[in-house]
Amino acid sequence: MSPTSTSPPRRFIALGLEGSANKLGVGLIAHFSDNSPAQILSNLRDTFISPPGEGFLPKDTAKHHRAWIVPLIKRTLKESGVKVKDIDVICYTKGPGMGAPLQSVAVVARTLSKLWDKPIVGVNHCVGHIEMGREITGAQNPVVLYVSGGNTQVIAYAEQKYRIFGEALDIAVGNCLDRFARTLNIPNDPAPGYNIEQLAKSGKVLLELPYTVKGMDCSFSGILAYIDQLATQLAPSSDADSTTKSKQERKPLLDPATNNPITPADLCFSLQETVFGMLVEITERAMAHVGSSQVLIVGGVGCNERLQEMMGEMARERGGSVYATDERFCIDNGIMIAHAGLLAWRTGFETKFEDTTCTQRFRTDEVHVAWRD
Amino acid sequence: MSAFPHALTVNIPLPSPRLASILSESLAVDEELSPHVHRTFETDDSTLVVRYSATTARMLRVSTNGVFESIKTLLETFQELDVDVLEKDHDA
């Protein structure tokens, strides 16, 4: 051994490939043996956006990923200037997520691992979000709220596991929002949740919606069914198709205080206030349980500024604060997979080639977080 | 084998035995999803030999179409991202 204080730290580089939902992400990250901050060498993404009123189906999503993955990897290498010999490990999303899209990415990861003769690491998507959130925000030991189209979990770290304290029992909060966007025919570009957030800003009336917190957990399918029903009672919009006349006159939904018709913006506003209130409650319950005052919000719904605001108010009341990342990192991306995979690989973890499968269900607490005390 | 009467063998020539093996090994990791379909991958020098047999013609069509989509992406991967290709790109 000949370590000297003047020798440069060893650099580790990982390629990360993510495709569990409609976002295809390719990332390249560098870690340093002296534990200086991670360096993002490239973070590219292409999103499969479906037409308004439609969600994204597994088959079409996989087709999108297959079409874009090679060009995106090629661009990543070109723009970063990183050469194959500099890359230490290939990381890919093992799960959870949608089957066909996951597989369309995993099969390329395997192939690169053989073409380039590199080890391969399968990463848990949720752990990717958590680790990237920790790295970017520097939050020490926060309670994590992971909220996206596919997942809603309240997580706290203990003894080398990310333990799930509470979760959505039926559908994820992002799924509830995305499906309501379809009901209202709101565009999916750039994301349905983003467009609901913007529309909600002009909402004025807070309607009472089912509030379904069940202890540490919550549920969203009931509130979705209820608000979908309310949406059918909206007064017809001014640009409604005049050739389709309803067979009977429908009494539109009115604000009981003013008798003004309820608007789609009012529904979006009411939905957000209610579901975010539920999330704040179950997060606070977990914080009280573990004695933490910090909250880290990760996942696509974590981009929502109203959610960040409500969570921040609660955290401040407890003498703490809320941490969140911007859309580069809270929306699904390849860099978080590279980051979490590299952390695991540096502890000696590697996925055997025959085990480089994908799985739609992969619990966050199944991962042995060997890189933390 | 009469339970899987619909069969198809696909032979795909690759430029080298190395690429045929990589293609075979990468595809073989994913288990065939349907119990109505049997599938094997083998290499014969530079050729990938895929054998499908299924209970119905429809299942045969569905499964072989599926693997072709994966093969197309992996061929593109070979073409654009193999070590020698990237080295040439880098020097260009």
From TrEMBL, chain A:
UniProt feature, compositional bias: Basic and acidic residues: 242-253
Any one cellular-component term (Gene Ontology): EKC/KEOPS complex
Molecular function in Gene Ontology: metal ion binding; tRNA N(6)-L-threonylcarbamoyladenine synthase activity
CDD domains: ASKHA_NBD_OSGEP_like_euk
Cross-referenced InterPro entries: ATPase_NBD, Gcp-like_dom, KAE1/TsaD, Kae1_archaea_euk, Peptidase_M22_CS
EC code(s) of this entry: 2.3.1.234
Required cofactor names: a divalent metal cation
Gene Ontology biological process terms from the UniProt entry: tRNA threonylcarbamoyladenosine modification
Positions annotated to bind substrate: Y146, V147, S148, G149, G150, D178, G193, E197, N304
Domain of life: Eukaryota
UniProt binding sites for a divalent metal cation: H125, H129, Y146, D332
Record's keyword terms, sorted: Acyltransferase, Cytoplasm, Metal-binding, Nucleus, Transferase, tRNA processing
Main location: cytoplasm
Region span, Disordered: 237-259
Boundaries of every Gcp-like domain copy: 46-338
Cofactor stoichiometry and binding remark: Binds 1 divalent metal cation per subunit.
Catalytic activity, reaction form: L-threonylcarbamoyladenylate + adenosine(37) in tRNA = N(6)-L-threonylcarbamoyladenosine(37) in tRNA + AMP + H(+)
Subcellular location, record wording: Cytoplasm; Nucleus
Family to which the UniProt record says this protein belongs: Belongs to the KAE1 / TsaD family.
NCBIfam families linked: gcp_kae1 (TIGR00329)
PANTHER family registered for this protein in UniProt: TRNA N6-ADENOSINE THREONYLCARBAMOYLTRANSFERASE
Protein name, entry field: N(6)-L-threonylcarbamoyladenine synthase
From TrEMBL, chain B:
GO terms, biological process: tRNA processing; tRNA threonylcarbamoyladenosine metabolic process
Gene3D superfamilies, per database record: Alpha-D-phosphohexomutase, C-terminal domain
Keyword tRNA processing on entry: yes
Location of this chain's protein in the cell: Cytoplasm; Nucleus
Keywords: Cytoplasm, Nucleus, tRNA processing
Organism: Ascodesmis nigricans
Protein name: Transcription factor Pcc1
GO CC terms: cytoplasm; EKC/KEOPS complex; nucleus
Main location: cytoplasm
A Pfam match: Pcc1
InterPro entries: CTAG/Pcc1
Presence of the UniProt keyword Transport in the record: no
Family that this chain belongs to: Belongs to the CTAG/PCC1 family.
